[in-house]
Structure formats: structure tokens, C-alpha cells
Give the backbone structure.
Amino acid sequence: MDIQNYNDFSYLIGLLQTDGSLYDDKRNRGKLQLEIGIKDQDIIYKLSKIIPVNNTISERKRTTNKGYLHSICLRVCNLNFRDLIKEWGVPAGKKSQNISPPLHIQHLSVIDYIR
């Protein structure tokens, strides 16, 4: 898979490790998902352009016990891309105890990853 800009991709990895979700399912039917508040929708549209495979963007409106939430969601289902994301340190499933900077990746931009 061809990554055009490693600085942007490093930022994407950091954001996915903190706010994203990677789901693995049977028969390789998983998805990568990033959902953020609608006020930051420009970030989703910019990330959509740097992801080198098909992706979808959708809005979500809901009422929870914390009030009304309006968010925007980026989804990627491509298996090769999900495997690449895993190589870069985004684990599938619960990740709060097992994420760390992917310092083993030669092209990682640590400044952009942390940003």
C-alpha cells in the first residue's frame, strides 16, 4: 500500500490509537472507525483524502444521558489497510492498556504522531 505523506499518516495513527476503533470479525469482515464531534468535521475530511483506499463518511445524531450528540464518522473496511494500521500499532479491540508509539516504523514522524 502506497502512503503519500508519512507526516499525515503518523498523525492519523496517533489519532486512531486514542480515538479510533479497529474491529476484527470473522472471515475478515472488520472495520476501522473514527468518530469525533461535528465541530471537528474538517479533520475527518482531510484524513479521508490521505487514506489510500475507499472510505465512507457519515453523520450521527443521538441523545444520550449526557445530552444531545452530533458527530461525524470515518469508516474503512479494506482488509489490507486494516492490516497496515495494525503494523503501525493500532490494535483491534480494547486498547487502553496496550498502545504505544510505533517506534519500529522507519518513516514515523514522532512530532506528527504526538500532535
